[in-house]
Every structure is written in C-alpha cells, then in structure tokens.
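Hey, can you fold this one?
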Amino acid sequence: MTQTERFHILDKEVLPGETKTVNLKIAQLHTMTELKIPIIVSHSDVKGPVVLLSAGLHGDEFNGIETVRQIIRKKINRPKKGTIICIPVINVFGFVNQSREFPDGRDLNRVFPGSREGSLASQFAYNLMEHIIPLVDYIIDFHAGGSSRFNAPQLRIEENQPELENLANAFQTPFLLYSKNIEGSFRESCDKLGKKYLLFEGGKSLDINKKIVQEAIDGTLRFLNHLDMLRDEFEVPKVDNQMIYIQDSTWIRADLSGLFQSISPTGTFVEEGQTIAWITDPYGSVEVPVLAPNSGYIINENQGPIAFQGDAIFHISTALIAKELN
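Sure. Predicted structure:
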C-alpha cells in the first residue's frame, strides 16, 4: 500500500521516500552557542510502523553510537515500509566531554520523564519525551557497561511482556536478561506510554568493540526484518546459537583490594567454586582466588587492573529459563 502522508517531526515535514536530518535544540552553551541534536529521519512511501534507534544516552558509551552511525552509513535506516528515526548521540554534552553525565552532574537516565522547568538534564528528558517519543512505536536503545565493566551482548526487558519477548527473540543476542525498569529511566518512561522498548547492552564505556557493534547491527537487521521493514537488498544474519534467557543474576564483589586479574571473560559458563579471577598484592606475598558463588554465565566482567574492596567485579546469572520464544 502506497502512502502519501508526510511525516511531521519538530515542525518539519519529511516526504514519502525522503531522508532528512532535523535538529532538536536542547540548550545554549555559556558561549551563547546553541547546542542541537541531529535526528535522522527516513520515511518510506509505504505505510508502516515507526522505529527509533537511539544511542549515547550516556555520552561515554561509544559502542551504541558507532552502531547507529553504521546503520545510517550502510543505509539500513531506509525502510521498506514505515519510518526509522535515528538519534546516534542523545547526550551530546557527555559525548563532547567523554562523560556519562550532563554538565549539571546528573545522570540523564535517572530523570525521565523530565520537567519543562527542571534541571538541564530534566528539561532535555522532557523535550525528548514530549516531541519525539509520541511519534514512535518501537525503540531500540543501545548502551554499554561503565567503569571498565564489559557487558556480554544482551537485551534487557521486564518479565511477563509477551510482545517484548517476541521482539527480543527476533533480535537475538547471546543473552536476554529479565530486569525491572529503573525509576526515572528512559525505559520506564517509554514503557508507561506503551512504547515497545528493547535495551541493548554490550561492551564497556570509552571503547569501540567491533564484535559488539556487529552483534548490535545484526540484531537490528533481524528486528527490522521481523517488522517487514528491512529492504530486500539486505541479507538477514543467521543466528549460530539460541539465546540464553536469564531470569535472575547477582554481582560478585571483591573481598579485598589489589591487582585484579580475571580469567573468565564475558559469556563464559562457570561452575560453583571455580576460580574465576585472582586478586594479588604488588609485592608477591598475596594471591587470593575469586571463586564463583554458583554455576552460571558471566555476563559482565570488570576489566580494570585494580579492584578495591567492595568493587563489583563480575555479574553472574543465578537462574535461567529453559525455553524457546516464538
């Protein structure tokens, strides 16, 4: 079915078959320079859903930014039907400063849905929720681990959400982690509006990992194909292994401070009691093993060379769900 409707966003029109960049003004710098976020909109001439691909909510999480950049560069964002909106960098402030936070020190992903008259971060969250999110049906938001903590490629959704489970099964990453929405998060606010939101996690901050980026791109291709939005010229990537569904998980913390040497990379299955890392002193007199508290998959690994007592050093699954989703 051919559509003739124009797509309206931020007082701009995008014609059927057109790709256009529009700008969302978010603030003015102390230099009086306006700070704007580029938003790339591709509108098909065939009626269909609206998908948002977003990254850089935390400005130091470069894997997601690179993922959306490549999607645009390879023209994957030009849909067979419907509309795809790409925001490669949401938190431009953080991206410029290579920082997680906004200039006001706030974590943007804890102030949603925001306020018209709140803090700088809150005002921006408000504008995103007011002007962009009402237009979309589906959202894939790309994230990475922080503070040298490397996430295995994974999707996160709440339990008992059949449609989200089907979408996650279409995307297919090595792991699907059931986790509750965090108060003030982008995910929670979108969920309250009935938007179907997948959160992708992979890699660590201040880093671009080619395997993680490719995993995210492949999943997006499968997701768009599931919605019949992927153009025929693109091949749908095959999945080598069935996704592992993690119902519950826990953090392992360091019992003492010292040099940290992990021997269990993300994605590894370990047995209860297995040595998964070592913590040592620099003088050769202390060498303490870190033992797995239970059998499970390592889904996050601290790749920093030093651990302090109480630091989170691994994220490990504690309960799996043995099923295949339709």
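The chain has six helices and 18 strands. Let me know if you want another pass with a different chain boundary.
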